[in-house]
Amino acid sequence: AQSVTQLDSQVPVFEEAPVELRCNYSSSVSVYLFWYVQYPNQGLQLLLKYLSGSTLVKGINGFEAEFNKSQTSFHLRKPSVHISDTAEYFCAVSRMNRDDKIIFGKGTRLHILP
Amino acid sequence: DAGVIQSPRHEVTEMGQEVTLRCKPISGHNSLFWYRQTMMRGLELLIYFNNNVPIDDSGMPEDRFSAKMPNASFSTLKIQPSEPRDSAVYFCASSAFRARAVATEAFFGQGTRLTVV
Lengths: 114, 117
What we know:
The complex is a heterodimer of chains A (114) and B (117). With 114 residues, chain A is mostly beta strands. Chain A has strands at 3-5, 10-14, 19-21, 24-26, 31-38, 44-50, 56-58, 64-68, 73-78, 87-95, 103-104, 108-113. Chain A contains no helices and 12 strands. In chain A, strands 2, 5, 6, 10, 11 and 12 form a 6-stranded mixed sheet that branches. In chain A, strands 3-9-8-7 form a 4-stranded antiparallel sheet, with no helix packed on it. Chain A has a two-stranded antiparallel ribbon with strand order 1-4. Chain B has no helices and 11 strands.
């Protein structure tokens, strides 16, 4: 079965500083990878996804993520964060060409400091 | 499209009562997921339907929980009897799965915040 580990439950960052949110996955088969964002009292929305091809994936709101197969990682980055980026971020995985069951990590809460 | 619609948005009930959560997926989507979110356990997949058929219910915590999808546009998650430890936010999500095709992301509803007192 596949699983996702987000090592950091909370990440504080100063406004306009860069940020990296870490995600590692485990799976016996090839996977698709996703990052979702959840703003307070809302559902989850997709930031970006990796399907195949280029390992650097660009998403909405200036976020990007890099797929590293050898390290089984899919870290999310943004070069300069804004106060509006305050939210919880979830990494997720689904098995390629099997089904679309999506398994989520426990989430990382991003705190933007003024 | 209005997106995934869940009702109610908030539910407060007494321990022992039956609770029914409802979900209308995005039209044309053929997969539906029920997730539960708590501080302690994060986002847990409870059950997953494909073409109205339950595919994986291994995440359903116990027999008190049941889910149905009588047609492509409606699903329910029922808890009977409810307990305080069931308090959580329950999310419904849908996707348009196509076999041997590229991944399709899940689209989430706004969630139902359940409080069992």
